[in-house]
Design brief:
The complex is a heterodimer of chains A (394) and B (290). Chain A is α/β, with parallel strands linked by helices and 394 residues long. Chain A has two domains: 8-221, P-loop containing nucleotide triphosphate hydrolases (Rossmann fold), CATH 3.40.50.300; 223-355, 2-Layer Sandwich (Alpha-Beta Plaits). Helices cover 26% and strands 21% of the residues of chain A. Chain A is built from eleven helices and 13 strands. Chain A has helices spanning 46-53, 96-107, 112-120, 136-148, 166-181, 193-196, 217-222, 235-244, 265-275, 289-297, 307-312; strands at residues 8-17, 20-30, 35-39, 61-66, 81-84, 154-158, 185-190, 202-207, 210-216, 226-232, 250-252, 258-261, 279-286. A six-stranded mixed beta sheet of chain A has the order 5-6-7-3-8-9, with helices on both faces. Chain A is elongated and about 80 Å long. Chain A starts with 7 loop residues before the first strand and ends in an 82-residue tail after the last helix. Chain B has helices spanning 2-13, 17-48, 53-59, 69-80, 82-98, 100-106, 111-144, 153-181, 184-208, 212-215, 219-238, 244-253, 262-286. In chain B, helix 4 (69-80) packs antiparallel against helix 11, helix 5 packs parallel to helix 8 (153-181) and helix 8 (153-181) packs across helix 9. Classes of the chains: A alpha/beta (394), B mainly alpha (290). At the A-B interface, helix 1 and helix 2 of A face helix 1 and helix 6 of B.
């Protein structure tokens, strides 16, 4: 029998659908007591991975273990792991209560459990309605109710927020967090980091069927750097003045603005004032997790590189005396409207040791340059970019 | 295992499918029994009439002893078992189509036990349909047939037994085809088309080519042989003298042309059922549920 640890272990999972490698050599561990986000863009292999873990899809290679056992050796699996999967269906002519009664019988829990879980997910009044008449959100709740029938130690949810209204999402968030806090395991997949950012403690990020990152979300957060976007009257003069002050993390943006990393807007405004440069616009940009996630997972269906480069090398952008910093590159992906400091590790496949549990920061990741100060992050999720406000005086 | 069987039963009783198919099953069985009972009664009446006296004397037969109702019952049972076959056909096809198979497999220890529970439940449902069919057929035949044309208790029990057996086998045959096809519409159309048209066409061709013995090996020929052979054996055992030339004709009337003894027909159809059922099982066992 299983070991009752509540741990999920995915070891070198690979799934080949004909010529398509849906999942390639994927490994990660999910520990109990926390909500783990399983993130990746559409088509990254999330659903296939979860279905392999749950014994619904046979892996080409590798193994997925729940409590140290493959799914089909768990005994009464619904008592150990409950799952809400995307393509999980209901017979449209069967009432929600009858649906739950069917599976309550299969799991071997008393019939009263069906009403309990209906109440729990807020479908108590709709239990005698046929599932075919349910909205998407109600179906999601019914799927969750089904997953909870066996009072499992582990919950696996594939895109559970789909179809839920904001109230439902907030409810789900609270529910999952309290579930995890009681020492159980929650694994939740999403293609949107923002959707689960406030719910999860740990993340597994996959792209193109491979693990890109896994570890605590806080470690990922620490990798962010804020930038200040400035529109000066004289770019060359401002850059020179900033350099004199020892501020070198400067980047030219295609729209004519410059991006300065590692300083506050106030400091730049002061420098500009001293140099006699007017500032037409200044804006603090907190690079959010979503962007980092984007970079970790980008490239799967990327268009050819080149668009940005062309725009960037237009004559007139190169001011005399201004040199691009070696460490700062233009983004290689055309859909990134606002360039962001690229981390070296994002461009390469992860080194072998990268997938070890909780090994943070990963090898190859460079710490911020000396002199860099972590900007105050009162609201670490805050997205303050986007509007060209006149934040700093000159 | 008991839990899974209970779950599968709840699955079948919590949608309208079972009574949606039970109603036409009963109507079809009753209707055919009434009709065939009436037809065979008029045949017997004619044969017993003074106009046919010469003929019966010439053949050396005594129509008053003919249990013509047996043929009507066999035919009616054959037709009505199409419905339990469809009921079985939807067992797995519907689950795959509605994607409830995901939850079914997530709540069962393994696929073998989930599918075994389903098999047991559909055997029971096949028997329930079979009992309903035999009962409806019996009522219909009693209404339109003369008492002398009805089988005795032993004969009735024998026919009821094979009737229920063929209903169970037809259900399992449907389950297997449905699991292989995995499409609700496809399964229904293929099953009905084959049983009603395709194989009858093949049978006509085989009979006209002088190869009626092959018919007994075909699925529909075999399952018809199950009830048809019992009906014609019972008939012949009680009918007194029947000329050899008439035997083939009688078997054709019973729907058992080219069929073997009832137990051999049953075995042949069992092989067909096992072939599709195990094939469907194997396919579902290994299927990636995506």
């Amino acid at each position: 029998m299983h070991d009752g640890t509540g741990r999920i272990v995915v070891q070198n999972l690979t799934k080949q659908f004909g010529p398509v490698a849906a999942v390639q050599n994927l490994s990660f561990t999910v520990e109990p007591g926390s909500v783990t986000g399983f993130l990746g863009p559409n088509g990254a292999g999330k659903t296939t991975t979860l279905r392999m873990l749950l014994g619904l899809v046979t892996p080409t290679a590798g193994i997925g273990l729940i409590n140290g056992r493959p799914f089909n050796q768990l005994g009464n699996p619904a008592r150990v792991v409950g799952a809400v999967l995307e393509a999980q269906g209901f017979h449209p002519k069967r009432t929600a209560r009858n649906h739950l009664l069917v599976y309550a019988a299969a799991i071997g829990v008393p019939d009263s459990r069906a009403d309990q879980v209906l109440q729990l997910v807020g479908l108590g009044a709709a239990g005698d309605r046929k599932a075919g008449g349910y909205s998407l959100g109600m179906k999601q709740r019914l799927a969750l109710a089904t997953a909870l029938l066996g009072d499992p130690q582990i919950l696996v949810l594939d895109e559970p927020a789909n179809g839920l209204d904001p109230e439902g999402i907030a409810w789900l968030r609270t529910f999952l967090q309290s579930y995890a806090r009681s020492g159980r395991t929650v694994l939740i997949s999403s293609h949107l980091l923002a959707e689960v950012e406030q719910t999860v403690d740990q993340v597994v990020i996959i792209s193109r069927g491979q693990t890109m990152y896994y570890g605590p979300l806080d470690n990922l957060r620490d990798q962010q750097q804020a930038r200040v976007l400035v529109q000066p009257s004289d770019t060359g003069a401002l850059v020179a003045a900033l350099r004199e002050d020892g501020i070198n993390a400067i980047e030219q943006l295609p729209d004519g603005r410059i991006a300065v990393s590692g300083v506050e807007a106030k400091q730049i405004a002061d420098v500009a004032l001293k140099a006699g440069v007017s500032i037409y616009g200044i804006q603090e940009e907190k690079a959010d997790l979503e962007r980092l996630f984007f970079q970790l997972t980008s490239g799967q269906y990327a268009a050819p590189v080149g668009y940005k480069q062309q725009g960037y090398e237009q004559p007139g952008y190169q001011q005399p005396g201004y040199q691009q910093q070696p460490g700062y590159q233009t983004p290689s992906q055309p859909f990134q409207q606002q360039p962001f400091q690229q981390q070296p590790y994002q461009q390469q496949p992860p080194p072998p040791g990268y997938q070890q549990p909780y090994q943070q920061p990963p090898q190859g990741y460079q710490p911020p340059p000396p002199g860099y100060q972590q900007p105050p992050q009162d609201n670490p999720y805050g997205q303050q970019h986007g509007q060209g406000g006149l934040g700093g005086g000159a | 295992m008991g839990n899974l069987i209970k779950a599968e039963f709840r699955k079948t009783t919590s949608t309208g499918l079972w009574w949606g198919l039970m109603i036409p099953t009963v109507l079809m069985a009753l209707g055919w029994a009434l009709l065939t009972g009436a037809i065979f009664t008029s045949v017997t009446d004619f044969m017993s009439s003074s106009e046919a006296e010469d003929l019966t004397e010439f053949l050396g037969v005594d129509p008053s002893q003919w249990q013509m109702a047996l043929f009507g019952m066999a035919r009616s049972i054959n037709v009505a078992t199409l419905f339990p076959m469809i009921f079985g056909g939807l067992a797995i096809a519907n689950e795959i189509n509605r994607k409830t198979i995901t939850t079914t497999f997530l709540t069962a220890p393994n696929r073998v036990s989930a599918l075994a529970a389903k098999m047991i439940v559909y055997i029971v449902w096949g028997a329930i349909f079979g009992i309903a069919i035999v009962a409806s057929v019996s009522i219909g035949v009693v209404i339109t047939s003369d008492t002398s044309a009805l089988p005795d208790a032993t004969g009735w029990l024998a026919l009821a037994g094979v009737g229920i057996l063929s209903s169970i086998l037809m259900t399992m045959f449907g389950v297997g085809v449905g699991a292989l096809m995995t499409s609700v519409v496809g399964t229904t159309v293929v099953l009905l088309l084959y049983m009603l048209l395709v194989e009858n066409g093949i049978q006509i061709v085989l009979a006209s080519q002088g190869l009626p013995e092959i018919i007994g090996f075909l699925p529909n020929g075999a399952v018809n042989g199950l009830t048809g052979s019992v009906a014609s054996s019972l008939f012949l055992a009680n009918a007194g003298v029947v000329p050899d030339d008439l035997v083939d004709g009688l078997r054709a009337v019973a729907g058992a042309l080219g069929a073997f003894d009832w137990w051999l027909s049953g075995l042949i159809f069992l092989v067909w059922t096992a072939l599709f059922f195990l094939g469907g099982w194997a396919a579902t066992q290994r299927k990636d549920i995506t």
